[in-house]
Amino acid sequence: MSELLKMLGCRYPIIQGPVGMFNSPRMVAAVSEAGGYGLLAVGFINEADTVRKLLDDVRSLTDKPFGANIVLMNPNSREYLKILADAGVKTVTTSVGSPRDIYPIIHDLGMHGIHVVLALAHAVSAVKAGVDGLVVVGSEAGGLRSLNSESSTMVLVPLVADFVKVPIVAAGGIADFRGYRAALALGAQGVQIGTRFLASAESPAAEPWKQAILDCPDGGTSLIPLPNMKLAQRLILTPWIQKRLSEAGLETVSAELERNPAKIGSDERAALGAGQVGALIRDIKPIAQIIREMVS
Ligand SMILES: Cc1cc2nc3c(=O)[nH]c(=O)nc-3n(C[C@H](O)[C@H](O)[C@H](O)COP(=O)(O)O)c2cc1C
Which of 52, 134, 266, 279 sits between 20 and 30 A of 120, alpha carbons compared? Predict the structure, then answer.
């Protein structure tokens, strides 16, 4: 059994990628029931009681192992870690921020932590900070990106594997058995899946978002900077974005985008996040089927 599988305690080395503020106990439980590692995204939650309720809800649906993603910039991270440890979570992932101060706490609580990195330099410094594993996310992935020039999964995963000894989870561009096997061949012990699970039967994403992923063509996403931040989001180039880009340019589009998840489905300016791999996704399937086909 790989070091990663020992850490996760699940059957397949497939981790559910956190998606911003989207938390669905049903989806987390579906991933874990199918043999993967379901993950709550507690990074953007402000109330400890919300974290407790989500944990209870997942536990009422599955007795299989699941974890949570902590966003290190969130000032409540330490409190949430204690709640997660008390609830029996054995392994968390950590994103956006330096892992240096939090990993001693994770270890004192008896947990393991896998840190999310987008570049080799961050991978090397995270290992020095004591992380137990790395999620290495290539530039084609959905989610937040830096404004730096970045490497794709195909380059970044073996590059990081050349420099670190901790288990690597590859993320970005993986939607089926081809990507899964490629990731293992590149030196990863497992994968983290974002966009493919977003376009699943159990995903809480609004229908227009799921449909936009199904309709996403080759080259159908782009990095759009977040206003006043040194970060960009990978978004589907919706008809509205394409029109406004030609009329008004990137800065205006970034300022005018509707980022409130509740507005997806009712506002043509909605920011619909997805990875480049949307081009490979052509149907909405149950998570159990996605995982079964991925490992077949
Ligand atoms: C809309 C969206 C939001 C995301 N939000 C987060 C997040 O809050 N924290 C995080 O660590 N990763 C986030 N991600 C990244 C995913 O967890 C995962 O690493 C990534 O989607 C993998 O690439 P893929 O989309 O090609 O599968 C997000 C991805 C998407 C598509």
Answer: 279
Alpha carbon distances (Å) from 38 to 52, 93, 129, 179, 187:
16, 11, 25, 19, 22
Pocket of ligand 1 (CB under 6 A): 17-20, 41, 43, 69, 95, 116, 137, 141-143, 171-174, 192-196, 198, 273-275, 277
**pLDDT score for 189:** 98
CA of 232 to the centre of ligand 1 (A): 12
CA-CA distances (angstroms) from residue 279 to 97, 213, 216? 30, 7, 5
Query: Does one domain contain both 62 and 138?
Result: yes
The predicted-structure confidence for 155-166, as pLDDT tens digits, reads as follows 999 999 999 999
Number of domains in the chain: 2
Q: Model pTM?
A: 0.96
Tokens 């809480």, located at residue: 204
Which tokens sit at 82?
């204690």
| pLDDT, position 22 | 87
